[in-house]
Amino acid sequence: MACSSAGVPANQQVEYMQIRSIEDPDEPAQPPAFESAEDEAHFQRMLSYFGLLEWVYRPEPVNFSVAIDGHRYAVLPPCPPEEAVAGRDMQDQALLVPRGWEVLSQRAVGFAAALPKLTARCWGTHLLCVENGRGGFDSYRTAVRTVGGPPGSRFQADIDWLERVDDDRRVRFRGLSGRLVIRAKHDCVMANLEQGRGGGRGAGIAAL
């Protein structure tokens, strides 16, 4: 049986795509099952490369997201963008990136335009963290922290207090106060809410 590089039989992937093309919106097809978290992470990276991540993995509802140029942005742990008191709820916590969302990367299209709009807010933290394209994370000052530079300026590159755990969807904070920026395509997030699959957890929808 032919298999894809993600560890899922090729015919199973084709069958899934066929089901998705004729599915009932009220009974959406579930993504294919995987034997390991590594296989699933590989599959998601492939989908992201081809721009299909949000089509296969419909974005799970996330509180306190904001719209910027075709995407919705939020932070982990979740916090309202207007929260001006820096919290410590992320310290020593392992967090799971919701399905259908991706960690914001400095290499992502639209990063340069989105960063100043995101860091102009507070988000209940001194620092917003993003992937740096070198296998690690960089941190940027928010409106809460202006010592040493204005909002949007880089605080630290290759930070050692945020790390990946096990696979691409889990991260762990250690030490300083920070929040991880995630994003998903705006249309996919809103379609999910309109179909009623988001329940009441889609609170905090806003636009910049």
User: How far apart are the first and last residues' alpha carbons, in Å?
Assistant: 49 Å
Rg, Å, rounded? 18 Å
Specify the biggest β-sheet: 8 strands, mixed
Helix content: 10-25%
Query: How many strands appear in the DSSP assignment?
Result: 11
> Structural class, judged by helices and strands?
alpha+beta
Report the β-strand fraction as a percent range.
15-25%
Provide a descriptive summary of the structure in words.
The chain has 208 residues and is an alpha+beta fold. The protein has two domains: 49 residues, no CATH class; 123 residues, no CATH class. It contains five helices and eleven strands. Strands 1, 2, 4, 5, 6, 7, 10 and 11 form an eight-stranded mixed β-sheet that branches. A three-stranded antiparallel β-sheet has the order 3-9-8. β1 and β2 form a beta hairpin. The longest helix is centred in the first third of the chain and has 13 residues. The protein is globular and about 55 Å long. The termini are far apart. About 4% of the residues have low confidence.
Features:
208 residues, alpha+beta, eight-stranded mixed β-sheet, three-stranded antiparallel β-sheet, 5 helices, 23% helix
Task: Quickly describe the structure.
With 208 residues, the chain is an alpha+beta fold.
Topology summary:
Elements lengths: L9 H13 L14 H13 L3 H4 L9 E3 L2 E6 L17 E3 L5 E2 L7 H9 L7 E5 L5 E5 L12 E3 L5 E4 L1 E7 L5 E7 H9 L11 E2 L1
Parallel strand pairs: 1-11, 5-10
Antiparallel strand pairs: 1-2, 2-10, 3-9, 4-10, 5-6, 6-7, 8-9
